[in-house]
Amino acid sequence: MINIILPVDFGEKTDQLVDGAVKFAKEVKGKICLIHVAPTDIGFAIGDMGYQYFPEVEENEIREELVLLNKINQRILAQDVECEHILKQGIAKDIILEYSDLKNASYIVMGSHGRSGIYDVFVGSLTKGLTKDSKVPVLVLPIH
């Protein structure tokens, strides 16, 4: 079975990315391994007392993200593409690469907004980092 890792961030272009990944999965008769990586700082806030941690905020956010992830999973399954999903917390690039190894992935499918230059210097590019460090091909779909 061809495993395709599909990281999602629930941004405005997620639907377009999912559509492209589903099309690709159908072409190669692959299974989509959907992953969302939540940041580790959910629930932290800065206030008068300095940094504070609110576990209930983190729990609520994770619960909401799991609901969104499950909806995407169901949408993919409804298109006759095998799919599973997972949510993890950590550094996105590292978690995605570990998941790719765990699933013995054949591909990672990412989206690119076409930004470059100064944007990468200050914000960084997950797609660029994965392309550089992945052991498997990274299919980059243009999302505009």
TrEMBL record:
Source organism, top-level taxon: Bacteria
The record places domain UspA at: 3-142
Q: Which family does it belong to?
A: Belongs to the universal stress protein A family.
Organism equals: Chryseobacterium formosus
Q: InterPro entries from the entry?
A: Rossmann-like_a/b/a_fold, Universal_stress_UspA, UspA
| Residues forming coiled coils | none
Q: Which CDD domains match?
A: USP-like
The cross-references to Gene3D superfamilies, in alphabetical order and at most eight, read: HUPs (3.40.50.620)
What the entry lists under Pfam families is as follows:
Usp (PF00582)
- Protein known as: Universal stress protein
